[in-house]
Amino acid sequence: MSLLVVGSIALDTVHTPYGKVQDMLGGSAIHFSFAASLFYPVRLVGVVGRDFPYTFKEMICKKNIDTKGLQEVEGETFRWNGKYKGRMNEAETICVNLNVFANFKADIPEDFKDSEYVFLANCGPSIQLSVLKKIRRPRFVLADTMNLWIKETRTELLRLLKEVDGLVLNDGEAYLLTQESNIITAGKCIQKLGPKFVIIKKGEHGSILFGHENIYLLPAYPTREVKDPTGAGDSFAGGLMGYIASAKEINHNNLKTALIYGTITASYNIEDFGVNSINRTTMEDIKVRFKEFEEMIRL
Amino acid sequence: MSLLVVGSIALDTVHTPYGKVQDMLGGSAIHFSFAASLFYPVRLVGVVGRDFPYTFKEMICKKNIDTKGLQEVEGETFRWNGKYKGRMNEAETICVNLNVFANFKADIPEDFKDSEYVFLANCGPSIQLSVLKKIRRPRFVLADTMNLWIKETRTELLRLLKEVDGLVLNDGEAYLLTQESNIITAGKCIQKLGPKFVIIKKGEHGSILFGHENIYLLPAYPTREVKDPTGAGDSFAGGLMGYIASAKEINHNNLKTALIYGTITASYNIEDFGVNSINRTTMEDIKVRFKEFEEMIRL
User: Fold this and answer.
1) Shortest alpha-carbon distance between residue A223 and chain B (Å)
2) Residue environment code for A98-133, b if the CB has 16+ CB neighbours within 10 A, otherwise e
3) ipTM, 2 decimals?
4) CA dihedral defined by B90, B96, B101, B102, rounded to 10 degrees?
5) Among the four A28, A219, A228, B150, which has the fewest Cβ within 10 Å?
6) Which of A210, A217, A291 to mutate to probe the B interface, most B CBs <10 Å?
7) B221 CA to chain A: closest CA distance, Å?
């Protein structure tokens, strides 16, 4: 088994009521990898510029992450600058500099082309499709997307949806994609566009898994102190795919458990800035919180 | 065992994307009674004016509801006129005429003073307190409240909280009452004000039960078509208290089950205007949906 992620690597500047941190390690592929590698070795594909700090490379290398697909090219690393206010449900983007990510080609190392579990992190759907073409026989492909692609590259996105097993997106994106206003109708509508599995994230309100015939409703873990929600969705996907890769079988029950692991990894992610919290989290921590959470949701 | 509710009886005019209905049977005590009476006989205390339609009296009498406490006085019945737009998460009040409800004294019939289970529906806290004084030895008292009382009659509300076993309120009200912005912190903070049990409702996002030492997180039943959310909270409380009264024992497990029954009765309530849907719902329907819902939330 093998788990591949293709997505952004960024230097994030984030401002929340808890403070401001500049140029910290971030990006969808990073948040995913740090979470997923708790469960299973991760193959990372992404691009950084010459300015990417050596200490961040070291941080990544210390994890169970294969960096063969981490390209360093001329130019500056992708930068995102965002601010969260009040209850921190949504980020206000102050500034985005795609830099080297603008020409990201997602070259997949030869060794990675046999990957069985693939997470196509938030990225233009044409890049996501081009990655898929290079993977020989993936067993389970999960894609993420966002408002920008739903609005600007709808045709390519609809093409992508025919090729993936699962789509993970938030409620607002699901409404935008389907033009529905009921979450159940929206989820079922997305399934008709291709993905057998749809996971709709509702932030602090939990998530919904739409499977073959069943729906699974899961609350979020009730975090007491959210310091920085950046990367919550990617660490959710990381815990989910990491568990799925380790479980070896894809069925509704395993996906339900995976949803819980996703919820738990995301809950650690948001407790500190960037990857600070998930970086010091162990599988032991995950298991303790899993048990605690189970008690809160079990009838 | 005996279950008492004291609250408003209204003629509601409601406008939703599904249409407009004028002067239909409504009010907190009505929505509560119709839901709770599916589980257990209800003692209703409320006031109406001379204009209260005979057909509505008939509708109430056909239920398992004791109307000895239903006073009819000179004047007009309480009227509420509201509108829901878009995803219908919040009502916009167009107009309120308290009418006879303005002088509501909540006279409790002698026969009702031995009530063991009491729901103090949304009402000024001084009236809620005066009701409590008249009940001899209640076993379990649950109160509801709203922004108006939290802002305008805080002192009385805080006095009430010391006298009740449970408080049910929505998330916005919990934040307003506690000045907290985290739902878990808010719930625990309310427990410190008096109630052993706190139930925070999050509408379509479910509810949270704060018990002695445990928290229970419950998603909402995923209704496909919400026609009129009016009374959702009261029918939720109705299913909850109705089940509790029928279960005869108050413990964390029974309260968890009660939360699910509340969720299910509320899900029926919102499927049609006013009490139309809950009026035709049977205990058989409730049980079918309970099972279906259990499948959606069970790990």
Assistant:
1) 8
2) ebbbeebebebeeebeebbbbbbbbbbbebbbebbe
3) 0.89
4) 120
5) B150
6) A217
7) 9
